[in-house]
Design brief:
The chain is an alpha/beta fold and about 525 residues long. The protein is built from 17 helices and 22 strands. Strand 10 and strand 11 form a beta hairpin.
Length: about 525
């Protein structure tokens, strides 16, 4: 047996049994769940979700064969606390009190102090054969301690008892940023919940500050509370911090179905690659992305539109107006799936989870994906500095799933320079296609250019393109684009110079003027 295999065997031998929490992705953060018989402090300000989290774990635990004891040290009645939880999908009144038992320890604490509380918990835990103990309101217990040392001694005696009977313990107490409660040094693990405002938006987060006996995902992870309880969203760049290499397999070309564009791409984009469509509003990014999905569907390749601004019906209507009327047929058949994100306050990592999980559920090969646009993800983050690492991790996961991805992103509407909103985007994408407006003699023209294409040859020339009711048309040659550019196409208000040749589809102003001069004026009639 090799040394590496011996090390794996040793790790398996000392691996401790776990207690699953049933909280979506919390067990992922803790690499398997809570360690049985260990004690954990759950800290956070009022409203951060401590009580909901504890009950969600408790109901999951008893549902899967365990028994839980919930001790309150608060003046709030059990009936009122439970009434606030009845709307949660995990709530099950039938397990109360046989499997989930509630007792109040406040009076015992008030009359007999910490020693009396400890004895009460010992008796109740043995009587109900508890495998999960939750003590809610530990700040009340601190008030009855003569100091931190007395409180830590109480925690130590409690831990010794629960570890003997194999009971996992959660200690809930309010906590405010900047404080360091004494229990953080006495327990096996610490989960800190936070609630703060980012502008008008309320943000809830969870941090595993301490987790003895196992590795865990460090740092802040957003969480949300809904009718289903708490859902944790681990940071995408941490979930995929150790990316796998690309799975082996032949790569094919994925075309747009736009002849001259596909020629410039030497047949299309390479499968599994990531492409950035850059352009000002109205230049045709969405239509080009839909054209990419439609061409794939016509070849039997599935596609996903993941967008933030237009509903399914609006996209289909837009496609019908530009020669893509069969888009609706492929949407109805399910070959193209439109995932519209309503204009709500989104969570950045929840969006990535929704996208990746749906692609994984479809479990198909050669999928095409159009994300319209990066700005939707950007508006969902509360930490703008995360964007580069987030998209790098997301793009890599999509490559591993053999998904050919198009991202759209907007540049300034009128600017002589091309400034990408995400300057480091070129680090995580293989290809960049630029769509832009230029103005010549008070008329706007659209130009397309391939700025970058890794692992493949491509034509770097600039081509004019147009959008009509028959679809997207790219000029056969570079001449029309050259005519626009050599005519010194500029922003409004800038002097123009003569051009060599008229752009694609434009009439010659000189010919019109000459024709007008050769016509004889018609005689005017007298009244």
């Amino acid at each position: 047996m090799s040394s590496g295999q011996e090390g794996d065997s040793e790790r398996k031998a000392v691996e401790q049994p776990r207690l699953e929490t049933g909280v979506p992705r919390l067990d992922f953060i803790t690499k398997g769940g809570l360690i049985q018989g260990a004690s954990y402090a759950v800290l956070g300000p009022p409203g951060s979700g401590k009580t909901v989290l504890a009950h969600q774990i408790a109901f999951w635990h008893v549902k899967h064969g365990g028994k839980a004891l919930y001790v309150t040290l608060l003046t709030e009645s059990h009936a009122r606390m439970l009434s606030n939880l009845e709307a949660m999908s995990f709530f099950d009144a039938s397990v109360i009190p046989d499997k989930l038992h509630y007792i109040s320890g406040y009076r015992q604490l008030e009359t007999e102090g910490l020693k009396g509380l400890l004895e009460l918990v010992r008796r109740a835990a043995r009587q109900h054969q508890a495998t999960l103990l939750i003590m809610d309101g530990m700040d009340a217990a601190k008030e009855f301690a003569r100091g931190d040392l007395t409180y830590k001694r109480f925690l130590q005696e409690l831990q010794t008892f629960v570890s003997i009977i194999g009971c996992t313990t959660l200690l809930l107490s309010p906590h405010y940023t900047g404080e360091m409660p004494p229990e953080t040094t006495a327990v096996d693990g610490v989960f800190e919940l936070s609630l703060w405002l980012s502008g008008p938006r309320a943000v809830r987060e969870l941090v595993a500050l301490k987790f003895r006996g196992s590795d865990s995902l460090l740092g802040k992870h957003e969480l949300e509370i809904s009718d289903h309880g708490i859902i944790v969203h681990p940071r995408t760049e941490v979930q995929f911090s150790s990316p796998l290499e690309r799975s082996e397999g032949p790569r094919v070309r994925m075309g747009f179905g736009v002849p001259r564009l596909d020629e410039s791409l030497h047949g299309g984009l390479l499968s599994g690659s990531t492409t950035l469509l850059l352009g000002a509003p109205g230049t045709g990014k969405t239509l080009l992305g839909l054209r990419f999905l439609l061409e794939g569907a016509r070849q039997g390749q599935p596609g996903v539109y993941f967008g933030f601004y237009e509903t399914s019906q609006r996209l289909i209507e837009k496609a019908e107006g530009v020669g893509m009327g069969d888009l609706k047929k492929y949407v109805d058949e399910g070959l193209i799936e439109i995932q519209w994100q309503p204009p709500l306050e989104h969570n950045l990592d929840a969006l990535a989870e929704r996208l990746l999980e749906r692609i994984h559920e479809r479990n198909v090969k050669r999928m095409r994906l159009f994300v319209d646009s990066i700005a939707g993800f950007r508006s969902a983050t509360v930490y703008p500095e995360r964007m580069s690492r987030f998209f790098s991790a997301l793009s890599h996961q999509l490559r591993m799933m053999d998904v050919t991805t198009l991202y759209s992103d907007e540049t300034a509407l009128f600017s002589p320079d091309v400034d990408a909103p995400q300057p480091d985007a070129t680090a995580y994408v293989e290809n960049v296609i630029l769509l832009r407006y230029v103005e010549l003699r008070s008329q706007l023209y659209r130009l397309l250019s391939i700025m970058k294409m890794r692992e493949s040859q491509y034509d770097s020339g600039i081509r004019e393109f147009s959008i009509t009711n028959e679809g997207i048309t790219v000029a056969k040659t570079f001449e029309s684009a050259e005519a626009v550019l050599t005519g010194h196409a500029t922003l409004a208000g800038t002097p123009h110079k003569a051009r060599r040749k008229p752009p694609m589809g434009a009439k010659s102003a000189k010919k019109k003027a000459a024709l007008k001069r050769t016509r004889k004026p018609s005689p005017r009639r007298r009244s």
